[in-house]
Amino acid sequence: MPKTLFQVDLTKPMDQQELPGHNRWHPDIPAVVSVNPGDVFRIECKDWTDGQIKNDDSPDDIRDVDLTVVHVLSGPIHVNGAEPGDILVVDLVDIGALQGDEWGFTGIFDKKNGGGFLTDHYPDPAKAIWDFQGIYTTSRHIPGVKFAGIIHPGLIGCAPSHELLATWNKREKELVDTAPDLRTYGAGLSGDKPVLAALPNPKNAILGQLPKSEFDRVAVEGARTVPPREHGGNCDIKNLSKGTRIYFPVYVEGAKLSMGDIHFSQGDGEISFCGAIEMSGFIDIHVDIIKGGVEKYGMVNPIFKPGPVEPRFSEYLVFEGISVDEFTGKQHYMDVHIAYRRACLNAIEYLKKFGYTGEQAYLLLSCAPVEGRVSGIVDIPNACCTVAIPTAIFDKPILPV
């Protein structure tokens, strides 16, 4: 087994760990450990909420999640020899649950606290707990379903440079300023207005081993971990599983790689927002460097080569959606957001005919190995998106007869 370089105590919050991680992106957050190209090592991770969700039947903890805490990340890891303009090569050698913590959760966030892709249809909190049996999982809250997971980190990336961080904060602030009456994500405010971006927020910032003299400055500047950006980050790509190789652009000396938000399984889109099967766990990693790789390969965002380890399904039931608003019937031009939402809603309505509640079907689409596609993007005025559900995950037939 590789040496564990970052260990977590699940009974303690991230800021009280022996080696604290972080929950903001900033180049000045110190690395917790250094490794050499070619090294293989293990990193342990808490779940993305820092243990706020419990293994019980009440959705109250989902309702009350403090979003200023997320995402708690393990790292940063300094890779010796990595310099700006290089590519950091990261191999995901193995990923799994921590011993004694073989369970996970999926949630629908309250509309007043983050919401989700279908929050106008499902505004209230809900939760499903999943128990792991090796590669398989089942839930007492969504009966009649069993499937193998595609275990992956929802969030992994390198630290930004000061220049890139300033770019992120500038462009996201400009976006928020287009609608200044909308509330700020994770600010603890009530209301049901949407959020355009998660701007820096010093509340509950965790900044690793940063000196106290620097804490206030970095906490105010640090970018939230919510979205994916040029460095990777919270991409929530379900196929970043065992055996995957990821190529990250390097922006700072040592790369400062961090990771977390491990998922046992996820559907494309992670539509309920707390929508994968969220878990604590470990990741075994191998690293290497391609000198000058960013310019050589014209890299802007990370590139990855999926690993060979994932469940294989031969039969799917596929639901279509088009760019027509479900509330007003208004025709939109090539709107893939609306089209994907309609595909999901069509799938949920169908599953309700087989005994599932809308909330159960919503959670299942979010966390099961569902394949989402932009299937058509040229046939004006309707984009066509599809959601494909593997029929083998159900213990009864679900095809029309």
TrEMBL record:
Signal peptide: none annotated. InterPro entries: FmdA_AmdA, FormamaseFmdA. It comes from Stenomitos frigidus AS-A4. It holds the Pfam family FmdA_AmdA. It comes from the Bacteria. This is Acetamidase/formamidase family protein. Gene3D superfamilies: Acetamidase/Formamidase-like domains.
